[in-house]
Amino acid sequence: MDDLLAGLAGALRLLLSGDAGVWEIVLLTLRVSGTALLISAVLGVPAGVVLALRSFPGQRLVTTVIYTGMGLPPVVAGLVVYLLLSRSGPLGDLGWLFTPRAMVVAQVLISLPLVVGLTMSAVEGITPELRLQLRALGATERQIAQAILWEARAGMLVALVAGFGSIISEVGAVLLVGGNIERSTRVLTTAIVLETRKGAFDQALALGFVLVGLTFVLNALALRLRGALLHPAG
Question: 194-231 in b/e burial notation, b at 16+ Cβ within 10 A?
Fold first, then answer.
């Protein structure tokens, strides 16, 4: 218990002291995971909606691939990206390996299936009777789709929260493709691993509390947004 309290106190000291190194790690963590989530949202939400509302050849195979990706071990995603971006890989000429860009790519590979799959489930969870009622009232297909998406809005937000949670706390993939380079690719999770290996458990615990606190604040904001979406003013 004393270690936990010491770690919490250390986390507060790290943040309040204005330590440039710590804040650089925090900001890079947010930048990498935020960019990955944005890309996953732009690609994944429309894909999940299409899979839920449309039928097309090969749909079952695509859905199976998405569900498989939802359980993909992060370290495997990191290995795939590493092999793609390595000098001998097909994308080696980009020079992205051991840069934040490679970390973003790895995190997109982890979060995208989650965003697609949970968005699809949220849309499919809307009662089929709604579509029939809207069609009976003369609504167009576009209006029906918009109504279904509005009803599934909370579920789609959950998809984004789950996607973000899967990457901000991930360590294996970003360690593989980022290399944990100081002032370049070091994020909170890899910094925790480094401090633990050095035996600096108090520093590692403090950074862990920073990560947990950051995740808590972001989830609290998401929960507030969910409430606003479910119960809009007026």
Answer: bbeeeeeeebbbbbbbbbeebeeebeeebeeebeeeee
Q: What is the 3-state secondary structure (H, E, C) of 160-179?
A: HHHHHHHHHCCCHHHHHHHC
Rounded Cα–Cα distance for residues 91 and 111 (Å): 21
For 198, how many CA atoms within 13 A lie in the half-sphere containing its CB? 12
Task: Tell me the average confidence (pLDDT) per consecutive run of 10 residues in the chain, 234 residues long.
Answer: 64 68 88 96 93 88 94 93 93 94 96 95 83 80 80 88 92 94 92 88 80 87 78 63
The pair of structure tokens assigned to 88 is 């001998």
Is residue 183 a contact partner of residue 190, using CB atoms and an 8 Å limit?
no
Q: Which pLDDT value is given to residue 2?
A: 63
pTM, entire model? 0.88
Question: What 3 state SS string does 200-219 have?
Answer: CHHHHHHHHHHHHHHHHHHH
Return the residue matching tokens 């790895």.
Answer: 106
Q: Could you give all domains of the chain from N- to C-terminal order, each with its CATH number?
A: 27-188 (1.10.3720.10)
CA 28 vs. chain centroid, Å, equals: 15
Q: Give the pLDDT score at 14.
A: 66
Tell me which residue of 49, 171, 40 sits closest to 111, measured CA to CA: 40
